[in-house]
């Protein structure tokens, strides 16, 4: 595939950067708690930053399946963790003949390469022309956990074991899988290709365990940490089903973290992981800038969902609230403005059609998302909205000023972000915002597929019960 002279092509290359569990605590998005992300910030300064982008599912597996298929979870029934090779299979009518995003580029003349966490684990076999794979697990790991054992303190037998833990480990960046992934990418950015390339890089951090070398912790002294907005009575006005979904006793609760002096330490560890990933992103950006491809490459940086750092009582994603669904989205391309900020709602589902348009490729008619190119070029979408789904018939719709949540049993939440950006007060039971609620309800998906056979989420008992009930089978 490589040759001695670069190929002359009007089609740009693509650098596709996925960061696991990255929330919006970034410098370019207002920052929080002394956050330090100079490289993500410079990417945003050189491109278009979406400050109101939302995942299609607040969980790694279904979120990534949605991005790579271009289909909503409610369309495919992929609501839980699904083996990479089973995202597309004959038993799923919607995905059995779908073309994954990297495959579409390959079919249109691109050399595709990928390493790290891109689908839930890495990717289905054969999706990339050249795969660096994923180093298994989220290690390296210390011999013993540093703080959090990983089980529920009260219901140990009922739940799986979370990888959640935090502390300084290992000693050197070079021992981190993400560092090794960047080495792989940077070596390939130094090659010459006879066609445009699509390069995908998936980072593991800041997914738990929150382990990185000590030097990254040193960037975030505890006395500089600002904790997340939190009210101990925040969940008192929620429908019972919301409490079921938020029942995550294997995770440290905010009350536990407060009582044990660990809240700022968890945030410190998260920010340390983000700073480490930011440094590694900087290594890639430097390599690209020093390569043959600096002036003809589309870059997109995205995360699969947000991450709660004490909001709504816990440290996890796993929810249809703002802190769990909102995530960074940045595009940089030769024909895009620099330093533009878009505050209207956007969906990660738009990644697929947006990249196709930026690269001058024909639209893929199976995509359910819409291209963001018009908005990035100045069009105003006053009716923009974003839908996130967590299990069968549990949806949230986010508009510019409001969030509406409807659960499978009809339970509702509604938040006015103009006066309540932290979503403390559920207004669904009142009469004041009925018109706004009705408008957002009109965007709820009309299709709600049953759970895909291979899609599971045994980490949370509610979803085990839901799948068995909806599909009429036992797990």
From TrEMBL:
<keyword id="KW-0479">Metal-binding</keyword>
<dbReference type="Pfam" id="PF00884">
    <property type="entry name" value="Sulfatase"/>
</dbReference>
<comment type="similarity">
    <text>Belongs to the sulfatase family.</text>
</comment>
<dbReference type="InterPro" id="IPR035874">
    <property type="entry name" value="IDS"/>
</dbReference>
<dbReference type="InterPro" id="IPR024607">
    <property type="entry name" value="Sulfatase_CS"/>
</dbReference>
<protein>
    <submittedName>
        <fullName>Sulfatase</fullName>
    </submittedName>
</protein>
<keyword id="KW-0106">Calcium</keyword>
<keyword id="KW-0378">Hydrolase</keyword>
<keyword id="KW-0732">Signal</keyword>
<feature type="domain" description="Sulfatase N-terminal">
    <location>
        <begin position="12"/>
        <end position="360"/>
    </location>
</feature>
<dbReference type="InterPro" id="IPR017850">
    <property type="entry name" value="Alkaline_phosphatase_core_sf"/>
</dbReference>
<dbReference type="InterPro" id="IPR000917">
    <property type="entry name" value="Sulfatase_N"/>
</dbReference>
